[in-house]
Write a structure and sequence with these properties.
single chain, alpha+beta, TATA-Binding Protein, 6-stranded antiparallel beta sheet, 5-stranded antiparallel beta sheet, 39% helix, globular
C-alpha cells in the first residue's frame, strides 16, 4: 500500500511539473513543499529518513549559515545514489561536477519549506542538453515524490532560482562548461599517484586556516574522488547576495532558498593517464547557482569569486609537491 501511494504521488508530481518539462525550462532548484507541519528538526529528519529508504545515501547533513540578523534557518542534506552516480559518471570524470545532489530544509515567513538541487537543470549544464535527459527528469520527479511524501505540508513543486531553457550558461561570467574547469594541480599517473594525491588534497583541506571545512568525501572508485568544501562566512554572504533584490520586512533573507548551492566541489580525477585536481571557475560556479541574483549583484561583488577560488586552490594544493 505504501509503495502504491508513493507511485501515485510521483505520477501526480510528474503531471504537475510536466509543463516545465514540455517547455524544457527548469529552475536550478525545485521547491517541493511549504508550510510543512511539525518542528524544523522533524522536517530534516523526515527528509533524511525518506531519502535513505529510497536508496539515497546521506553523505552529510548540516545547518547552513544564514546572513547576519536573518532570523530564519536553513539545513543542507548532501545525498548520493550509487546507481545514479554510475550512470552520470559513464560520461567521463568531468561529470563529477553533477554529483552529489543536495536537499534543503529552510524557513521563511510562511513556515518550513523543502527543496532540492534540480538534476534536470544541472545535468544539462555539465553533461549537455540532451545527455541523460530522461534520467535527469525522472530523478527530478522521484526526488520530488520522496520529499513531498515526507514533508507533511503543502506540495507546490515550484521551479525556483534561475530558469533556463538550455544548459549553456551565458552572459557575464558564463561560457562553455568544459572551458570553466580550473586546474589546480596535475601529475602523470604512476602506481599509487592517484590515491596519494587524493590523500594529500584532503590533508590540505583539513589543515586550512581560512575557515573552510570538509563537508563530505565521495569516492567513485579508481578514477574520481570528490571533496565537498564549505565556509560559513562565504555561504552566509552568498545567500545574502542571492536574496538582496527579494528582501522584504517579513523576510529579510530570502536567499537561503539557495542552500543547495553548497558545498563547493574539489575533484581529484584520473584523466587520460594524468591525475588532476580541479574545481570549477568560481565566477562561473556562482553564475550556475546564483544567476537569478542579477548582473548588478555580480558587479557589486566582483572580487568575491576570485577570493573564494584562491583560497580553495591554496588549500587543495598545500600538501602537494
Amino acid at each position: 500500500m505504501k509503495k502504491l501511494f508513493l507511485g501515485v504521488l510521483i505520477l501526480g508530481i510528474s503531471l504537475a511539473i510536466s509543463p516545465a518539462a514540455q517547455a524544457a525550462e527548469y529552475g536550478v532548484y525545485v521547491k517541493v513543499a511549504e508550510k510543512v507541519t511539525g518542528s524544523f528538526a522533524d522536517a530534516v529528519k523526515n527528509a533524511e529518513t525518506a531519502l535513505a529508504k529510497d536508496g539515497w545515501q546521506v553523505l552529510a547533513s548540516y545547518d547552513a549559515a544564514v546572513p547576519e540578523g536573518c532570523g530564519f534557518k536553513a539545513h543542507t542534506i548532501v545525498v548520493d545514489s550509487a546507481a545514479y552516480a554510475q550512470k552520470i559518471m559513464a560520461h567521463g570524470p568531468r561529470s563529477a561536477f553533477a554529483l552529489p545532489l543536495r536537499v534543503a530544509v529552510f524557513t521563511d515567513e510562511k513556515g518550513i519549506n523543502t527543496s532540492f538541487l534540480n538534476p534536470a537543470s544541472l545535468n544539462r549544464t555539465v553533461l549537455g542538453d540532451t545527455t541523460e535527459k530522461d534520467l535527469s527528469v525522472k530523478t527530478m520527479q522521484e526526488l520530488s515524490g520522496i520529499l513531498a511524501a515526507a514533508a507533511k505540508g503543502t506540495v507546490v513543486n515550484q521551479q525556483i532560482g534561475e530558469l533556463r531553457s538550455k544548459g549553456h550558461v551565458g552572459g557575464m561570467g558564463g561560457g562553455a562548461f568544459t572551458e570553466k574547469i580550473t586546474e589546480i594541480y596535475k601529475k602523470e599517473d604512476a602506481g599509487s599517484n592517484f590515491r596519494d594525491i587524493a590523500a594529500k588534497v584532503k590533508e590540505g583541506i583539513l589543515a586550512n586556516t581560512k575557515g573552510w571545512r570538509l563537508v563530505y568525501s565521495l569516492d567513485l572508485g579508481k578514477d574520481v574522488v570528490i571533496y565537498g568544501v564549505d565556509n560559513r562566512k562565504t555561504e552566509a554572504r552568498a545567500f545574502g547576495i542571492a536574496g538582496e533584490k527579494r528582501e522584504s520586512k517579513s523576510n529579510p533573507c530570502p536567499g537561503i532558498d539557495h542552500a543547495p548551492a553548497f558545498p563547493v566541489e574539489v575533484v581529484v580525477m584520473k584523466d587520460r593517464g594524468v591525475v588532476k585536481v580541479v574545481t570549477l571557475d568560481e565566477m562561473y560556479r556562482m553564475k550556475v547557482y546564483f544567476e537569478d541574483a542579477g548582473n548588478w549583484a555580480f558587479m557589486k561583488n566582483m572580487r568575491m569569486p576570485g577570493e573564494i577560488e584562491r583560497e580553495i586552490v591554496e588549500m587543495s594544493r598545500a600538501k602537494l609537491k
